[in-house]
Specification:
This protein has about 350 residues and is an alpha/beta fold. The chain has two domains: about 200 residues, 3-Layer(aba) Sandwich (Isopropylmalate Dehydrogenase), CATH 3.40.718.10; about 120 residues, Rossmann fold, CATH 3.40.50. The chain has a ten-stranded mixed beta sheet with strand order 2-1-3-12-11-4-5-10-8-9, with helices on both faces. Strands 6-7 form a two-stranded antiparallel sheet. The radius of gyration is 20 Å and the shape is globular. The two termini are about 20 Å apart. The protein binds nicotinamide-adenine-dinucleotide. The site of nicotinamide-adenine-dinucleotide has 22 residues, from helix 4.
Length: about 350
């Protein structure tokens, strides 16, 4: 069976880590039933340079007809003052594909314990997923107003928007420890009161899972004080933005964290959580783990290829535990050498 994967390498370190991700994917699925056709398209700054727009029409059309999308990273000083910036291209792509669910796994492998800003005994064993609603809430609600003396935004959620992100969270939890923490501010916000009510209703559809609720302020503290208790954390757009960035400091580098964004039924997009790292671009020192793990998330969540994904994840964690580390982790291994080690482990 053939599946089309659109590859948007993007800018900065994007093409370097994408080369790693694609090489590892090809190796991992060599003998699988599903075979991938990779189709590369310009996007972000590369889209502006090649076609005059960060999201060229051909790129969007290819994404809309893809089975999955892999994105490296976009942006950089070169395009900061462009009429349309690379970042606008990314927002336009998310909107066009209606990618409402952002999934960020946060794991701290033993090899990275010493790099965490949190004490080893607290952070050891951290392994949870933040599920963030991505296309509604206060970032999109109308009316909004910025005046000289007064400004306001509108936090608005429709129950259907809450229901679909809740279902995503429960489905993910079913493949894990079946524990969902729904984060809100239901003691103050009307949107949170509706959020909590819908969460309880969706929980009825998943009797094998446990749902608990927590206010966002105390959840923010617990992520630092006791990160190992979490399994799946589901929350609205604003809270998810902040909590997932807070959680991303636990492993001590951005270079190992993947993410996925899902739409209702259509194509999903997989990308590292970090940006294009212009400060290290072109030096062959970027950590490709974030991209490789994004590719493994794609295997899991778009193609149900859990065995192949497990092998990729294991190879990455094993390599890091053996001391094969890129510069951001205090090592000397280059991007291409790290990739070669993973390919060898998968052979
Ligand atoms: N989804 C995206 O593509 C995305 C996300 C965030 C930022 N950006 C864009 O990226 C550009 C740079 O932004 P920034 O510098 O604030 O954030 P960044 O995430 O690119 O870099 C932050 C720091 O982390 C390091 N880093 C990031 N990824 C790494 C990796 N894989 N290996 C080793 N080190 C790594 C960088 O060298 C830098 O020191 C900006 O144009 C920004 O708008 C894009």
């Amino acid at each position: 069976m053939k599946k089309k994967v659109v590859v948007l390498a993007g800018d900065g370190i994007g093409p370097e880590i994408m080369a790693s991700g694609v090489a590892v994917l090809k190796k991992a699925v060599e003998n699988a039933e599903i075979q991938f056709e990779f189709e590369a398209h310009p996007f972000g700054g590369a889209g502006i340079d090649a076609k005059g727009a960060p999201l060229p029409e051909e790129t969007l059309a290819a994404c809309q007809s893809a089975d999955a999308i892999l994105l490296g990273a976009i942006g950089g000083p070169k395009w900061e003052h462009a009429a349309q910036t690379p970042e606008q291209g990314l927002l336009a792509l998310r909107r066009a594909l209606n990618l409402f669910a952002n999934i960020r796994p946060i794991a701290v492998p033993d090899a990275l314990l010493h790099l965490s800003p949190i004490k080893e005994e607290i952070v050891k064993g951290t392994d949870f997923i933040v599920v963030r609603e991505l296309t509604s809430g206060i970032y999109f609600g109308e009316p909004r107003h910025l005046g000289a003396q007064e400004a306001y935004d509108t936090n608005r959620y429709h129950e259907e928007e809450i229901r679909r992100i809740m279902r995503q969270a429960f489905e993910i939890a079913q493949g894990r420890r079946k524990y969902i923490l729904s984060v809100d501010k239901a003691n103050v916000l009307a949107t949170s009161k509706l959020w909590r009510k819908v969460a309880e209703e969706v929980a009825q559809e998943f009797p094998d899972c446990i749902l608990e609720h927590q206010y966002v302020d105390s959840a923010a503290m617990r992520i630092i004080q006791n990160p190992t208790i979490f399994d799946v954390v589901v929350t609205e757009n604003l809270f998810g933005d902040i909590l997932s960035d807070e959680a991303s400091v636990l492993p001590g580098t951005l270079g190992v964290l993947p993410s996925a964004s899902h739409g209702e039924a259509g194509v999903s997009l997989y990308e590292p959580i970090h940006g294009s790292a212009p400060d290290i671009a072109g030096k062959n020192i970027a950590n490709p783990v974030s991209m490789i793990l994004s590719a493994s998330l794609m295997l899991r969540q778009s193609f149900d290829m859990n065995q192949e994904a497990d092998r990729i994840d294991r190879a990455c964690f094993e390599a890091m535990e053996e001391g094969v580390l890129t510069k951001d982790l205090g090592g000397e291994t280059s991007t291409t050498d790290f990739t070669a080690v993973i390919l060898e482990k998968l052979s």
